[in-house]
Structures are given as structure tokens and as C-alpha cells.
Amino acid sequence: xxxxxxxxxxxxxxxxxxxxxxxxxxxxxxxxxxxxxxxxxxxxxxxxxxxxxxxxxxxxxxxxxxxxxxxxxxxxxxxxxxxxxxxxxxxxxxxxxxxxxxxxxxxxxxxxxxxxxxxxxxxxxxxxxxxxxxxxxxxxxxxxxxxxxxxxxxxxxxxxxxxxxxxxxxxxxxxxxxxxxxxxxxxxxxxxxxxxxxxxxxxxxxxxxxxxxxxxxxxxxxxxxxxxxxxxxxxxxxxxxxxxxxxxxxxxxxxxxxxxxxxxxxxxxxxxxxxxxxxxxxxxxxxxxxxxxxxxxxxxxxxxxxxxxxxxxxxxxxxxxxxxxxxxxxxxxxxxxxxxxxxxxxxxxxxxxxxxxxxxxxxxxxxxxxxxxxxxxxxxxxxxxxxxxxxxxxxxxxxxxxxxxxxxxxxxxxxxxxxxxxxxxxxxxxxxxxxxxxxxxxxxxxxxxxxxxxxxxxxxxxxxxxxxxxxxxxxxxxxxxxxxxxxxxxxxxxxxxxxxxxxxxxxxxxxxxxxxxxxxxxxxxxxxxxx
Amino acid sequence: xxxxxxxxxxxxxxxxxxxxxxxxxxxxxxxxxxxxxxxxxxxxxxxxxxxxxxxxxxxxxxxxxxxxxxxxxxxxxxxxxxxxxxxxxxxxxxxxxxxxxxxxxxxxxxxxxxxxxxxxxxxxxxxxxxxxxxxxxxxxxxxxxxxxxxxxxxxxxxxxxxxxxxxxxxxxxxxxxxxxxxxxxxxxxxxxxxxxxxxxxxxxxxxxxxxxxxxxxxxxxxxxxxxxxxxxxxxxxxxxxxxxxxxxxxxxxxxxxxxxxxxxxxxxxxxxxxxxxxxxxxxxxxxxxxxxxxxxxxxxxxxxxxxxxxxxx
Lengths: 531, 313
What we know:
The complex is a heterodimer of chains A (531) and B (313).
Chain A: H1 6-23, H2 30-34, E1 46-47, H3 49-52, E2 54-61, H4 63-83, E3 92-96, E4 102-106, H5 112-122, E5 125-126, E6 129-133, E7 135-140, E8 144-149, H6 151-176, E9 182-186, E10 190-196, H7 202-208, E11 214-219, H8 225-229, E12 237-240, E13 248-257, E14 261-268, E15 274-280, H9 282-294, E16 300-304, E17 307-310, E18 322-326, H10 331-342, E19 350-358, H11 360-414, E20 417-418, H12 420-449, H13 454-486, H14 490-524
Parallel strand pairs in A: 1-20
Antiparallel strand pairs in A: 2-10, 2-19, 3-4, 4-8, 5-6, 7-8, 9-10, 11-13, 11-16, 12-13, 14-15, 15-18, 16-17
Helix pairs in contact in A: 1-11, 4-5, 4-6, 11-12, 11-14, 12-13, 12-14, 13-14
Chain B: H1 18-38, E1 42-43, H2 45-48, E2 50-56, H3 63-71, E3 79-83, E4 85-93, H4 102-118, E5 122-129, H5 131-159, H6 162-186, E6 189-190, H7 192-222, H8 228-260, H9 266-293, H10 301-312
Parallel strand pairs in B: 1-6
Antiparallel strand pairs in B: 2-4, 2-5, 3-4
């Protein structure tokens, strides 16, 4: 038990050296670490926002919203599809999106089958689910067709929308020029955004909280003002609030949307006040030119996120595919809008459901206090261990320090984030490591009391204690894994350090201490052992 | 001569005093449940939703006056609490309804409101959690605790025998309830960190119990003719130096964290210290003696030995 084959010794030494090599960059300044030669590890431990300061936002998309958008686009598709049915357009009436499904009545019952066939063709298969489609097309009551989104279809469109949203958010945050933001999806409909160093998240929230859906719609000039005042719009039109105060009736269908924008910048209007210029891509430009050409003399509305920004008259066709949005902008708000338009619209509205901002001095205080507490804890434990177990206590303290360094090494290597609860977890792993050595040393004491010689006592001590240590630590690993899976935020950070720490502490407290003890016993061959 | 916290060869009759221990345990548990029912936990924003700001003042502000001032800002009813030092105040407010910028508006409002009387104040930390998220955090926290307990019971059952599983879980439930009772008593803020502490307490208290259970099993095999009572006493006494030594060392490490460590994890560390004391108590006095009440006899030894062989193979 106490003899170590050469290869084992070298494996242990190499493991420790490897771990220390990865821990080393943490003791250098950022610049020094970056200057290390390429073959050496230079990755430093990433600190959580609670330690370095910054903003953490959790955004949630309303799945209802995704469903609604999907339904609206379905409505458009169905309209255009029925117009193009082979054998002539299919006439229909009573199209409705009530109750979250799209229904319509085909006027000519003989065309029903042709219509259904055409509509089934536009439903999409869902990747990963053979046979499943995103929309069910059914006939009810003779000649009424109902299109229902399937659960799988909704899940797929939410997934799709969230993936797009992450991209849009990344673009918007990059525009802010902040350093290393973390943007990750969480669960089905959430996104976590972490921006280290950001003190005032209001600018960030302003950017993330806006959908930036830009549309150009014709103003419905024939709408009856008294009807409008009562909140009733003619069919095919809708009443939208406007920045200028009076609600405006516009056609439901947009003549063009912001999807075709290629660029947007801050500029000035004729009066020299801040405005936002935009440019369409070539197809967008053509459509815009055509639409303006057909409607010269009529007012159109520029609609952003369901609000009319301005409703200018089309004085002449706009042919260049570029234009200007003017309103009451400051340079700052114009810039914000330009960024929003440049980075594209969010496919879904996002709401902040959790927000945590930590100031840099609090983070620095926490690091300082955590490090101080850690050092004092190691010192206190060292004093107790050495006073109690003498030489073997010293071995465990050496193992303890190696353990802390190994945890740092593994965390740097694996790119784990150290948070405040993580520091607490580290202090607790010290406890686990100490416990293993206490178990071993108490066993050795017991064996000695029974009158066994030095080497047999140590041998039995290690053997019997190791079993208990494994039992206890397997249980701790189980608890740590459960914490990691079910815990959120701080609990997760704690569980990561705890799991790593349990693994490294068993290695250092059992294997490394045994190596040290056996080398000493083999060399010194002590007749008695003071423990 | 090395230091010995617990003298060699103790022979304390733990089993004899078990009914006193059981009564005390029951009393502590009932008392804690009573406190939880009457005072309840001071749940942090993690669990009830809301807005929390840690504000650092140049000089310690008078809490009553400050509370009135904040309430007069029209941002909802506030709850103030000293945090770590008299200059640092934790301000809790209900979560504002409305759009994205609402939280910032409130922070700005409070900042402007305080500036007049207290000069520049430093907002060290702002946290807001919506009601929906906090509900989920509660749920996941409860699941984590329950599942850990179940996993522990299963593990001890497979690794040892069913009665070890039961005695361990009974003791653990006691540890957890008493820790919660402590939070109800002190009204320290109960947040996600504390849940992590509770889970760790489960882990560590378990360590103690597994070590003792291990020894009981070993002694049951070694001394087949001995009665279960003396075997338990022997095992607890034999492992006593280790139990006490580990707890003392751990508490020394935690005290460093409690006294010097960051204020943000004060509740966490306090829970840990208490949990380790309670866990050590329940390991020594409750969980092992409970085995007798569960009807374990030393006659069960042959069965244990065979179970052990299966596991070993």
C-alpha cells in the first residue's frame, strides 16, 4: 500500500504540475498573462458579475407574441396562395384570426379541395419530427377551412424567433461598444445578457426593449372620423396611436417593411434637426419606388413598433431607395433609432424579468473580502491541523494548498466562472479535504493505540479511511450535481466549484498525502510516530 | 505531544441519553416549525420578486427618517435594513409595474431624493426580479432540496441498509428545519445563496452520518455477540475525535468567512455555521441512536455482512 511504483509517482507529479501550470496565469496581471509564450496556458479565471461588477439581464419573449406574428404572416401567405391556385384564384369570405386560429369560408364549394390542397402545400415540415407539419389544415362545416398551428409548429417558431433574437441582440450590444458581453439562451423563451463593467443598464435596456419593427403604411383617407373616434376602423384598416397625438387610421397591409433596410444613420432633416436616414436594398428600393409612384399626393405613415412616427405626404415618387425619418429627435435618440434599424427588428418583443447590477467597488470589495477570508481560513485550518497531527498535519496543509491551486487551474482550463458563492464553495472544499485527512489521521491514531507498528498503522489507516472517504464524497458529488441541475444562478456557481473541489480534494488529501507520507516513511523509517 | 481536542478512548453513553436527545430534537423541530409558521422567512427578492438596492452613504443615516423620505418619493412602501455596516443600507421596494425603464426611473428617483439630504450616495447593487421568475426560483430551490434528500436516502439505502437510510433522512430533515427556523428567528434575508447553504448542510451533515454508519456496520460485523446499544456507543465514541475535529476545523474556516468575508454572503455563512453545529449534534445524538428505535438488532449482522459482500464485488 505504501510502495508507489515509479509511473504512479510521475503521474501524480505530472498531474499537479499540469494543474499548477494552468493556475499560474491567475497570479499574473492581465498584460503579463497575454505576453506569455503561446505554448503556455494563458487563460485567466473568468470572474462572475458579482465579483467584477456589471449588469445581468434576463429577457423573456412572450410566446403569445410569437404565435400572433406567425398567425399574421400565415394570413398573408394564405391570401397570396389562394390567388395563385391553378385554375384561377379561389374566392373566399369571412377570413378571421379569432381564437388564435385562421379560418375562412370558400365561396365556391367546388373549389374547396383545390384550396385545401394549395394551402397544405405551404405548410412546413418540422426538422427532427418526421411527418409533423407546422400548421394543420382542416375542413369544418362544409366549406369552412380552419388553419391551426400545431404545438410542434409553435415550438419551432419560438425556437426560430429566439435564435434570431439572440443575433439581433448581439448586433445591438456590439453597437454600444461594450466589452465581452455574454448572450445565451435559457430555456425555451429566455435570453440572459451579461455585460461586465456596465454600470447603468438603462441604455442597454432601451436598446433591448424595443422591437424596432419599421413599416410604411398608407393612410386611410376615406375613414369616417366619427367611427374612428369610437375606435372603429373600416375593414382592412386599423387605428394606430401616433407621436403627434391624434390616432391615425392606416391600411393594415404595409407597403414595405424595415426588413429590407440595409443601412441607417443619424442625419439631419431640412430644418437641421436630428433625423434618421435609411436605405433599402435593391428589391426594397424598387418596391418603395413603385409604391410611392402609385400613391403620389397621398399621405403615408411611418410606423415603428405599432406607433406612427410621422405621416408625410408623398410629394413625388421616391426612387433612390433611400429616405429620412424626421420627428422630434435628439441626437441621442436618433442614434438609438439608427442602431435599432441597422441591427434589424426583433422577431418578438422581449421583457426584462430579472435584472442585477453590481457596482465595481462592491465587486472589488467582495474579491478582497473573499480572498482575505480564504487566506485566514487556510491559516486557521493549518494551525489546527499541524498542532493536532504534527508532520501528518503539515502534509495535509501542503495538500490543501495544492488543492486550492488545482481548483483554480481546473476552473481556468475549463473556462468556468468564479462567483461569490464559488469562493464560499472553495472554502468549503477546504473542509472536505481536511475531513479526509482527519479521517485518515484518526484511523492511524487508533491503530497505534492498538499497539501496531508505524508502517502497518499508516497502511491500515489509509486503507480503512479511504473507503469512508469515497462513500462520503460520492454522496457530496450527488448533491452537487443535483444543485447544478436544479439550482439557478448562485447555486449553480457554488455547485461547479464544489464538484471540482470534491474531485481534486480526494486526489490531494488521499493520493498526494499518501505519496508524501510513504516517501518519508521509506526514507526515515521512524520507530515511533507522533500523531 | 500533539494536541487532542477529544481525549483518547472516550466512553460516553450516548445511547443512554437518547430519549433526552429525541425530546430535544422534537422540541427544536416543533419550535422551528412554529417560528416558520408565525414569523415566517424574510424572503429576499429572489423569492418574492421586487427591487433591492444596496446604497452606500457617506455617514450612517437615521433609518426611521430615511424610511419616511423613501416612502414619500412615491415609489411604494420601502423596507430598510442595515447591510454589513451602518453606512450600507439595503432598500427593498415593490417591483414597479410598467415598461423596461421603470426600474431605472425608480433608482434615479431614489438617487435624486437622497442626494438632497445625504449628498452623493453610491448604489452598490441593484437587483430586480419579476414575480414570475421568483416563483420559478422558489420551485427550483424546493426541488433541489427535496431531490438531494431523496438521493441521499437512496444512496444510503443501497450502500448500507434501509434503516440507515431512514435514520439519516430523519436527522437531515431535522437539520434543514432547524436551519430554516434559525432564519425565521433572526429574520436574516433568505435568498438563493441560503438555499445553496442548506444543500451544503445536507451534504456535510451526511458526511458525519456516513462516517458513523460506516463504523457501526464495521463493528456489527466485528462484534457479533455485542448488543446494538453498546455497538452504537462504541462506534460513536470511536469516531468522536474525527467528528469533532472536522466540525471545529470547518467552523474555524467558516468563521473567517463570516467575520471577514463579503457581506453579501453573510446569510450563507451564518446558515453554514449553524447547520454544521446542528448537523454534528444530530449525528452524534440522534441518527445513530435512532437505529435502536428502528428495531435494529445485532442479530442482523450476518445479513449486513452478505449485503456488504454484494456491494464489494
